[in-house]
């Protein structure tokens, strides 16, 4: 059996450090707030190359709180990409703003930067580029559009921890950036967690206030916020894991390069990196032409190889967005990709012989 991800293999490699961190939190009863959270916020801000990090309850909250900190709400529009996890667009709707989708670039699966400007209206307040699958979105053209129209940029970096875009760290590019520490993410907690990072001190203060019931002092609230916390246990675990993240990212990149070699000419389309970026391969996604994806998945399953689809229905085509009255023709590339993409097993501990075996089974499928 080759699993899709193997969180147990990762834990086995760092068990002593993790177990010690957990018992430290418990013996200090630093469950909410406290030194472990402060320490992780400092380490993660420095890892991202930004001044501020605010730990929150999860990645979805991070996006919602970041948008609220920018003052986004009813009557506003926020532009994002048609291929992402629903959390991205959900967070926009949660503020009361309207979601405006843009199609994807068919080679990178990220937002098509040539199709953003046509979606800008006087109500547009922000753009959320998603660094999907750990592939940095092409943010320079997005920054140019944002400057021209006075828009804010919130990075959805939930799949992009540690990635680089033209020498800049993912998370340090937008006005704010949002991370998820869901267990399966590149930097994953042992439960839910998230963070908002920013270089802007005033925005960081707003984020901290909104995440903490809009509070200035204990019982004096400037506005209504939410209760969204990264707890002490998760922070301590993440602080340990952050030290290993660069090595794990190297492992993912090595495995992606091996996949690219073993799968060359096999019948699937392997992923690309745009020039001058370092992708972190949260997922390794290939494209299977001619609607043969399900058959390939079944063939791999028979050989004990787990696969996934990220995502089987493009966001505008979901029932949840029926009210926007889109058709698949409005987002032709995202819709087409949703029928052809398949995610292969990807984690740092994956071995070359496993990758070779997966590639062999894929070749076998196309040669039948
Ligand atoms: C995981 C994810 C989120 C949401 O994070 P949670 O911690 O699960 O709330 C948002 N956007 C993207 C692209 C994600 O992959």
Description:
The chain is of the alpha/beta class. It has two domains: 7-239, Type I PLP-dependent aspartate aminotransferase-like (Major domain) (Aspartate Aminotransferase, domain 2, 3-Layer(aba) Sandwich); 245-367, Aspartate Aminotransferase, domain 1, CATH 3.90.1150.10. 39% of the residues lie in helices and 15% in strands. It is built from ten helices and 14 strands. Strands 1-9-8-5-4-2-3 form a seven-stranded mixed β-sheet, sandwiched between helices. It has a three-stranded antiparallel β-sheet with strand order 7-6-12, with no helix packed on it. A two-stranded antiparallel ribbon has the order 10-11. A hairpin with a 2-residue loop joins strand 6 (164-165) and strand 7 (168-169). The chain is globular and about 70 Å long. It starts with 6 loop residues before the first helix and ends with a helix. The relative contact order is 0.16. The model has no long low-confidence stretch (mean pLDDT 97). Pyridoxal-5'-phosphate (PLP) binds next to helix 3 and helix 4.
């Amino acid at each position: 059996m080759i699993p899709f991800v193997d969180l147990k293999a990762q834990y086995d490699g760092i068990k002593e450090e993790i177990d010690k961190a957990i018992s430290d939190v418990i013996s200090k009863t630093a469950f909410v707030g406290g030194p472990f959270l402060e320490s992780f916020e400092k380490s993660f801000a420095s890892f991202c190359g930004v001044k501020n990090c605010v730990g929150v309850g999860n990645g979805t909250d991070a996006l919602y709180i970041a948008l609220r900190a920018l003052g986004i709400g009813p009557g506003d529009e926020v532009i994002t990409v048609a291929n992402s996890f629903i959390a991205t667009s959900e967070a926009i709707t949660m503020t009361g703003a309207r979601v405006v989708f843009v199609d994807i670039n068919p080679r990178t699966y990220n937002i098509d930067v040539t199709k953003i400007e046509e979606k800008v209206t006087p109500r547009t307040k922000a753009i959320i580029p998603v660094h999907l699958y750990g592939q940095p979105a092409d943010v320079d053209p997005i920054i140019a559009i944002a400057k021209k129209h006075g828009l804010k940029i919130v990075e959805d970096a939930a799949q992009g921890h540690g990635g680089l875009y033209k020498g800049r760290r993912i998370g340090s590019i937008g006005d704010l950036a949002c991370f998820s520490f869901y267990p399966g993410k590149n930097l994953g907690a042992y439960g839910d967690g998230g963070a908002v990072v920013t270089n802007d001190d005033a925005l960081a203060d707003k984020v901290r206030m909104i995440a903490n019931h809009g509070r200035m002092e204990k019982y004096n609230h400037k506005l209504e916020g939410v209760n969204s916390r990264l707890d002490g246990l998760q922070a301590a675990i993440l602080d340990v894991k952050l030290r290993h993240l660069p090595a794990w990212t190297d492992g993912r990149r090595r495995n992606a390069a091996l996949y690219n070699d073993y799968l060359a000419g096999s019948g699937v389309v392997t992923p690309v990196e745009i020039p001058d970026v370092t992708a972190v391969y949260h997922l390794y996604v290939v494209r299977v032409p001619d609607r043969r994806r399900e058959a390939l998945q079944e063939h791999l399953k028979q050989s004990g190889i787990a696969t996934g689809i990220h995502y089987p229905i493009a966001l505008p085509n979901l029932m949840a967005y029926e009210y926007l009255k889109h058709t698949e023709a409005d987002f032709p590339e995202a819709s087409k990709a949703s029928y052809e993409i398949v995610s292969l097993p990807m984690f740092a501990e994956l071995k070359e012989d496993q990758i070779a075996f997966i590639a062999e089974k894929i070749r076998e499928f196309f040669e039948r």
